[in-house]
Amino acid sequence: MVLLENDAFLTELTRLFQKCRTSGSVVITLKKYDGRTKPAPRKGHAESFEPADNKCLIRASEGKKKISTVVSTKEVIKFQMAYSNLLRAHMDGLKKKDKKSKSKKTKATQ
C-alpha cells in the first residue's frame, strides 16, 4: 500500500475512477487514525498512548492497486471539498433501481 500526500492521493484516485469507468470497481474506506503503526498491546502490558490530534486514514483500492492518505484535522475542510467534488464528477456510472421489482414486493407482502 502506498501512503501519499492529500493532493497526490486525489490525483491518483481520479486515475483509478477513470480506469474503472467501463468495468470494475473502486473500494474506499475511511477510519480514525491515531498514528500507531503497530497493533495495540494486550492486557498484560499497560502502555498508554495519547495521539497528538485526531486524524483520518483514507484508503482506496482497485484490484491490486492500493493507495492511502492520512488527513489531519487542520486539512479536513480543504480535503473534504476536493474529495466531494471528485466523487460527484465520477458517480455518473451508477445504475438506477428497477421500479417494477419494488412494486412486486409490496404486493406480495399485502
Automatic annotation (TrEMBL):
Localisation per UniProt entry: Cytoplasm
Q: Which InterPro entries match?
A: Signal_recog_particle_SRP14 (IPR003210), Signal_recog_particle_SRP9/14 (IPR009018)
In terms of Pfam families, this protein maps to: SRP14
Task: Could you list this entry's UniProt keywords, alphabetically sorted.
Answer: Cytoplasm, Phosphoprotein, Ribonucleoprotein, RNA-binding, Signal recognition particle
Name the family the entry cites.
Answer: Belongs to the SRP14 family.
An annotated GO BP: SRP-dependent cotranslational protein targeting to membrane
Q: Which PANTHER family match?
A: SIGNAL RECOGNITION PARTICLE 14 KD PROTEIN
**Tagged with keyword Amino-acid biosynthesis:** no
Q: What does this protein do?
A: Component of the signal recognition particle (SRP) complex, a ribonucleoprotein complex that mediates the cotranslational targeting of secretory and membrane proteins to the endoplasmic reticulum (ER). SRP9 together with SRP14 and the Alu portion of the SRP RNA, constitutes the elongation arrest domain of SRP. The complex of SRP9 and SRP14 is required for SRP RNA binding.
Q: What is its main location?
A: cytoplasm
GO MF terms listed in the record are: 7S RNA binding; endoplasmic reticulum signal peptide binding
What is known about its subunit structure?
Heterodimer with SRP9; binds RNA as heterodimer. Component of a signal recognition particle (SRP) complex that consists of a 7SL RNA molecule of 300 nucleotides and six protein subunits: SRP72, SRP68, SRP54, SRP19, SRP14 and SRP9.
Q: Which SUPFAM superfamilies match?
A: Signal recognition particle alu RNA binding heterodimer, SRP9/14
Q: What is this protein called?
A: Signal recognition particle 14 kDa protein
Annotated GO CC locations: cytosol; signal recognition particle, endoplasmic reticulum targeting
